[in-house]
């Protein structure tokens, strides 16, 4: 059967009707844009879906016929498809969808001058109106200025619909609410078969915990600082060792010089004693300078090493002094 050649008589007998995307079962949904003229392929697909859906309807299988008729209507609008779809929706309890479809069919038939279909759709819609289930979605005042977005079954609920009793199909209705900087909220409302009214409140949304941004890494390279600290500290230790060596030499040399002096008087020394005194003074000066510089370098190196950012494990460091000299050892990752 061609869906465009349905007789007025058959429509009156079946009282068939169905919703378009702008009306079908969701008074909350925004009106969909006009899809324009369907392509040849879309028309062919719509015709095939309609025939399959109509065959199922004739077998009393409205639950199976409904999605096929709905897709046919989406691909290529036809008043007959709309009427049959609305009839099936009424049979399976989707009262709001059926009512919206009949209302749309009434308007379309009126514009086309199809009086019989217009009257049939009008009567079917009127009969359903007293059986509708209605849902009112209230929104806590605190939510109204935070950019809240409310959805019912995945479809946005416009602000104009808040607090209004609007027709919905019986069954579970999932409500969701989101807003920037707030925790998302959701619930499920079980709407009973009408006639009846149900209400749901979107409570004040809770503030979401503030995201703590990770601290920016210091521009200082901790590894380089530790290497520099070890190097400077090692040089400082070497300076202290050198200073200690020259200090010992100064003491020994001075004692030798004193042994050449008459009565141990440093002012009454032999020429050799005077020379040894001068050598001891030079060694003492080198010792003092080396020790001072070494101590300062060791302190500075220690500060660099221990104040470096600890983003990596520090290396194992050791040093030793024996008869063969001074040794500085490194271990681990720098």
Can you characterise this structure?
With 334 residues, the chain is α+β, with helices and mostly antiparallel strands. It folds into 3 domains: 122 residues, Tetratricopeptide repeat domain (Serine Threonine Protein Phosphatase 5, Tetratricopeptide repeat, Alpha Horseshoe), CATH 1.25.40.10; 70 residues, Immunoglobulin-like, CATH 2.60.40; 110 residues. It has 8 helices and 9 strands.
The helix/strand series, from N terminus to C terminus, equals HHHHHHEEEEEEEHHEE
CATH superfamily of the largest domain, by name, is Tetratricopeptide repeat domain
**Portion of residues within helices:** 40-55%
Which fold name is given in CATH as the topology of the largest domain? Answer: Serine Threonine Protein Phosphatase 5, Tetratricopeptide repeat
The biggest beta sheet, please?
4 strands, antiparallel
The total count of helices amounts to: 8
How many strands?
A: 9
Annotated CATH architecture of the largest domain? Alpha Horseshoe
Strand content: 15-25%
Strands of the widest sheet, in order across it, are 3-2-5-6
Summed up, the domain count is 3
């Amino acid at each position: 059967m061609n869906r465009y050649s349905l007789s007025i008589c058959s429509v009156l007998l079946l009282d068939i009707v169905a919703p378009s995307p702008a009306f079908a079962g969701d008074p909350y949904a925004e009106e969909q844009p006009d899809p324009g003229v369907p392509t040849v392929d879309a028309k062919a697909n719509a015709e095939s879906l309609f025939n399959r859906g109509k065959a199922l309807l004739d077998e009393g299988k409205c639950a199976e016929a409904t999605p096929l008729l709905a897709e046919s209507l989406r691909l290529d609008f036809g008043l007959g498809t709309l009427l049959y779809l609305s009839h099936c929706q009424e049979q399976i309890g989707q009262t709001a969808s059926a009512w919206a479809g009949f209302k749309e069919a009434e308007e379309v038939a009126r514009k086309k001058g199809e009086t019989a279909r217009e009257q049939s759709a009008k009567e079917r819609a009127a009969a359903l109106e007293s059986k509708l289930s209605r849902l009112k979605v209230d929104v806590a005042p605190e939510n109204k200025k935070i950019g809240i977005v409310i959805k019912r079954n995945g479809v946005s609920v416009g602000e104009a619909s808040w607090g209004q009793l609007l027709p919905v199909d019986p069954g579970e209705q999932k409500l969701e609410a989101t807003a920037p900087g707030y925790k998302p909220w959701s619930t499920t409302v079980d709407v009973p078969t009408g006639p009846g009214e149900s209400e749901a409140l979107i409570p004040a949304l809770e503030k979401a915990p503030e995201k703590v941004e990770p601290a920016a890494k210091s521009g200082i390279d901790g590894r380089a600082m530790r290497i520099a600290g070890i190097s400077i500290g090692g040089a400082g230790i070497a300076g202290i060792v050198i200073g200690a060596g020259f200090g010992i030499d100064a003491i020994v040399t001075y004692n030798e010089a004193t042994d050449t002096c008459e009565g141990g008087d440093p002012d009454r020394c032999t020429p050799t004693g005077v020379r040894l005194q001068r050598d001891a003074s030079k060694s003492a000066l080198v010792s003092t300078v080396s020790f001072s510089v070494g101590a300062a370098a060791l302190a500075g190196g220690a500060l660099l090493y221990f104040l470096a950012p600890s983003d990596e494990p520090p290396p194992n460091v050791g040093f030793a002094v024996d008869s063969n000299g001074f040794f500085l050892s490194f271990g681990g990752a720098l």
